[in-house]
Amino acid sequence: MSRIRLTIGGAILATTLALTAQAQTPAPKPGASEPSTTTKVQNWSRKQWNAAKSEWQKDRAKWDVCNQKATDQHLTGRKSWSFIYDCMKA
Fold this sequence. Notes:
- The chain is built from five helices and no strands.
- By secondary structure, the chain is mostly helical.
- The protein has one domain.
- The longest helix has 23 residues, at about 1-25.
- The radius of gyration is 27 Å and the shape is rod-shaped.
- The termini are far apart.
């Protein structure tokens, strides 16, 4: 009878330790290794930016609003690219 108790106790202890170790291991963040879309846009080439810009300019009203917002925030260059990208996708 005492061997059975020891065996069951050992199994419970092993399960508890395994669950504790699993709970303490941080889960990997989804997409942590992949840069955000905003970061990607800031790294676009001029060719990529111009292609996206020509597509967005078809919606003239939205394009003008997004550009005005970027200007109001004094954004220039690649920083404005990511802002305009987010604005046009919203």
